[in-house]
Write a structure and sequence with these properties.
There is one protein chain. This protein has about 130 residues and is mainly α. The chain has two domains: about 1-60, no CATH class; about 80-130, Winged helix-like DNA-binding domain superfamily/Winged helix DNA-binding domain (Arc Repressor Mutant, subunit A, Orthogonal Bundle), CATH 1.10.10.10. About 70% of the residues lie in helices and about 0% in strands. It is built from eight helices and no strands. Helix 1 (about 1-10) crosses helix 2. The chain is globular, with a radius of gyration of 16 Å. The two termini are about 20 Å apart.
C-alpha cells in the first residue's frame, strides 16, 4: 500500500521502490516513534514517505509556491491536482507535500488564514468527490 502511495507521486516503479527502501531504512532508526501510544504504524510510514518526497517536488522544474503546477511534472499528472484551480493547487501542495502550516501559506500568499483553510477544504472535497 505504501509503494502504491509513493508510485502515485513519482510515476516510476523503480524510483518508487527506491523511496520505499529509504523509508524503511529510516524506520529502523526510529523504532521508538512507532511504539508511542496512539501512533498508527502505517500513518507514521506515510508521513516519513511524504517527508522524503518533499524535496522531489521542491526540485521539480517549474514548480514553486507562487506559480501553477506544470503539466509535465508528476504533480501536474495527478488526476486530483488537475481538477484544482491554481490557488487550490498552491494551497494543497504547500500543505500536503511541503508540510507547510496554513498560517505560513497564508503569509506567503498574502491571504487570511481562514481563506487558506476554506481553500484546503475545497481541495479535500474535490479529492473525495472524484472518481
Amino acid at each position: 500500500m505504501l509503494l502504491g502511495y509513493i508510485f502515485e507521486v513519482v510515476k516510476n516503479r523503480q524510483v518508487a521502490e527506491q523511496y520505499l527502501v529509504t523509508v524503511f531504512n529510516d524506520a529502523a532508526n526510529e523504532l521508538d516513534e512507532f511504539y508511542k501510544p496512539g501512533v498508527n504504524a502505517f500513518c507514521r510510514l506515510q508521513l516519513m514517505a511524504r517527508k522524503k518526497l518533499a524535496p522531489f517536488f521542491e526540485n521539480t522544474d517549474g514548480y514553486s509556491t507562487t506559480g501553477e503546477v506544470p503539466d509535465n511534472t508528476s504533480l501536474g499528472k495527478n488526476k486530483f491536482i488537475k481538477q484544482m484551480t491554481n490557488e487550490q493547487q498552491l494551497v494543497f501542495c504547500g500543505a500536503h507535500w511541503q508540510g507547510k502550516t496554513t498560517s505560513k501559506i497564508a503569509a506567503e500568499l498574502g491571504r487570511p488564514d481562514d481563506d487558506i483553510r476554506r481553500i484546503l477544504k475545497e481541495c479535500f472535497t474535490i479529492i473525495r468527490s472524484s472518481k
